[in-house]
Amino acid sequence: MKHIPLLSFYLLLGFCFQFPSVAMRYWMMETVLVSPAQMVAITGVVAIPWCLKPVYGFISDSYPIFGLRRRPYMIMMSFMACSMWILLPFVPHDEFLITLVMMMASLGLCFTDVMADSLLVEAARGENDENKGIIQSWAWIMRFIGGLIASGAGALAYDRLGSSQTFLLNSMVPVAIAVVSMFITDTPTSEVTHWRETSTKLWSAIRQPTIFKPALFIFLICVTPGYGGVMTFFYERELKFTPNEFGLLDVMGYVVSIIGTLIYKKWLRYVPFAKIFFWALLLSFLLENTLLLLVFHLNRNIGIPDFVFALIERVVITLVGQFISMPMVVLGARVCPVGVEGTLYALLMSITNMGNVVSSEWGSLLTSMFGVTSTNFNNLWKLILLCNFFDLIPMMSIKLVRPEKGTASQEMAI
C-alpha cells in the first residue's frame, strides 16, 4: 500500500507521454507543416533533456529543498511541464519556438522521472529476498498500462477535440503527477553529497572494461539511424491512415510491450545476454526489411490490406524490440558498482537517450539526402535499406557483452 503513490506516478507518466502522440503527429504535419526530415530532427532535439539525467541527480543530491531531495523537485518540474503544454497550442508556428517549448516540457517530465527512479531504488532496497524486484516490475507494468490507456484515449481526443484541446487536456496530467508526488515517501536528510566526490567515483567506475564495454554496446544499438518519423508521413499521406488507425497501432504496441516484458521476466532472465541480443537483433533486422513490401505495395498483391500489414509488422517488431530493450535495462543495472549505482545507472540510460538523439538527427540528414518529403516517397525504400544496413553494426559487436571467465551470473530481478 505504501508504494501506491509511486506506482501511480509511473502510470501517469506513461499516460502523459502517449496521450498527445496522435494529435502531435497531425498537428506537426497539417498545421505546422514540417517536412519528414524536420519532424525527425525535432524529435531528436526534444529528447536531449533525457541525455542529461545524471545532472538532475547531482542537483537534487547537492541541493535539497526543505531537507528533501526528490519530492519538491518533482512538484516544481511537473508544474513546469504543465505550463509548457498550456503554451504549446498558442506558440507561433516557428520550428525553433515549437521545439524549445516541447523540449522544456520534456525536461520537466524527465527531471520528475529521475527523482522517481531514485525513490524507486530506495524502495527496492527495503524489499526482502522473496519480494526482490517486485516494485521495479510493477513500475514498468504501470508505465506501460498508462501508455496503453493513453493510446486509445489520445486518438479519440484528437478525433473529437482536435490538437489544441488535446494538448490542453494533457497539461492536466503533470498537475495530477504533482498531486501524487505529495504523497510519495521521501525521507528527510541533512546530508549533502558534493558533486565532485560523486564525479570522482563515477569516473573510476566508467574506466573499468566491465562497464565501458557494455555501455559502448548499448550506445551502438541506439545510435543507428532511424526513419520512424518518415513512416508517419508515409502512413498518413500515401496509405491514408486515420487518427483512429494510428491510435490502434499505438495500443497494440503497448499491449505487446507488456507481453514482451512478462515473457522476458518469466523465460529469458537466465539466458546469456550475448545470445539474446544476437538473435533479437537478427530477427529485428530481418523483420524491419519487410516494410519494403508495404512501401512497394506488394502486400496488396497477396491480399493483405495496408493497415493489417502495418499492424502485424508493428506487433512483431515491438515484441522483438522488447527482447532488446529489456536486456539493455538489466545489463545497465548489473554493471553498476555499489556506491554510485544510482548515478551510474542514470548515466548508462542517458547514453541510450543520447544514442537515440544521434539516431534521429542522422536519420533526418539521410532523409534529406534521399529527397524524401511529405509528398515524395520514391526513394523511401533506399532510406530504409541503408538505415537497416547500419543495424548490422551492433550484431558484429556482440563480443562487448560476452562475460569474461569468472564473472557473476546475469540473474537479476526486474
Structure notes:
The protein contains 20 helices and no strands. The relative contact order is 0.15. The chain has helices spanning 4-18, 21-31, 36-46, 53-62, 71-87, 95-125, 134-161, 163-170, 172-181, 195-206, 209-223, 228-238, 243-268, 273-288, 291-295, 298-301, 306-334, 341-369, 380-390, 392-395. With 414 residues, it is an all-alpha fold. The protein is 73% helix and 0% strand. It is globular. Mean pLDDT is 89; it is low at 408-414.
Q: Give the N-to-C terminal Cα separation.
A: 20 Å
Label the structural class: mainly alpha
Overall helicity? over 70%
Low-confidence stretches: 408-414
Number of strands: 0
Number of helical regions: 20
Overall shape: it is globular
Tell me the fraction of residues in β-strands, as a range.
under 5%
Radius of gyration: 21 Å
In round numbers, the mean pLDDT is 89
Biggest sheet details: none
Order of helices and strands: HHHHHHHHHHHHHHHHHHHH
What's the SSE blueprint?
Layout: H1 4-18, H2 21-31, H3 36-46, H4 53-62, H5 71-87, H6 95-125, H7 134-161, H8 163-170, H9 172-181, H10 195-206, H11 209-223, H12 228-238, H13 243-268, H14 273-288, H15 291-295, H16 298-301, H17 306-334, H18 341-369, H19 380-390, H20 392-395
